[in-house]
Design brief:
alpha/beta, Alpha/beta knot, Trp Operon Repressor, Chain A, 2 domains, 5-stranded parallel beta sheet, elongated
């Protein structure tokens, strides 16, 4: 698989740098699996004040991200990556709610471009001209799209082949299947009167596997019964 390219356009690039220079995201870039570039939207302004926002036509509260800097930024990114077909993602609370399935879909792309919304929103012409998908990480409002974009990038990159080692394997992650993960324990075997379940110390792998499956099922039923309901609906559709 060739190196995945991820570009992020934001008026606040400093918010992103620490996230992408640590842990798994840093290692993935060092391995040449992904190239993450953060673009400062203000570098594409044409006035001395480096203005990226303006008042909305028709009035109303809040400021709107101007179209010109974003269009110029997009032109520059595409000029550096000619001939491609990038997926342009706008992070917005109006978008489709993000999930693990969508993360897997994004791993099939060669080039992802994230536009980070801010203030009251973005000029609609940006969405009409450039955006191929609008994504939300949940039904709540945060200051801007930077943190949301970082969440999506992290969830995608860790799924790319070669990013995670054996100890970080994504195969058993919560939401990689139709149930939550089972409980985990490590040393010491007893801490402040709380003991690790005997089965995990038994060395009997078949019993451990069954215990984990049962715990995962019970935990899902207690914390996220909607996942089990969704699974049953999918099974019923297959039977029909």
């Amino acid at each position: 698989m060739s190196e995945m390219k991820i570009d992020i356009v934001t008026p606040f690039p400093e918010m992103m740098k620490g996230i992408f220079n640590e842990s798994i995201l840093k290692r993935a870039q060092e391995k040449g699996i992904v190239k993450i570039t953060v673009w400062d939207l203000r570098d594409f302004t044409t006035d001395k004040h480096r203005t990226v926002d303006d008042y909305a036509y028709g009035g109303g509260p809040g400021m709107i991200l101007k179209p010109e800097p974003i269009f110029i930024a997009m032109d520059a990114i595409l000029k550096m990556n000619p001939g491609g077909d990038p997926k342009v993602i706008f992070m917005t609370p109006q978008g489709r709610t993000y999930n693990q399935g969508k993360a897997w879909e994004f791993t099939e792309e060669d080039h992802l471009i994230f536009l980070c919304g801010h203030y009251r929103g973005v000029d609609e012409r940006v969405i009409e001209a450039w955006v191929t998908e609008e994504i939300s990480i949940g039904d709540y409002i945060i200051t801007g799209g930077e943190l949301a974009a970082a969440v999506v990038v992290d969830s995608v990159v860790r799924l790319l082949p070669g990013v995670l080692g054996d100890f970080d394997s994504a195969e058993g992650d919560t939401f990689s299947s139709d149930h939550l993960d089972y409980p985990h324990y490590t040393r010491p075997a007893e801490f402040r009167g709380m003991k690790v379940p005997d089965v995990l110390l038994s060395g009997h792998h078949a019993k451990i596997s069954l215990w984990r499956e049962e715990c995962a099922r019970k935990r899902t039923a207690k914390k996220r019964p909607d996942l089990l309901k969704k699974r049953n609906l999918q099974m019923n559709k297959k039977i029909d």
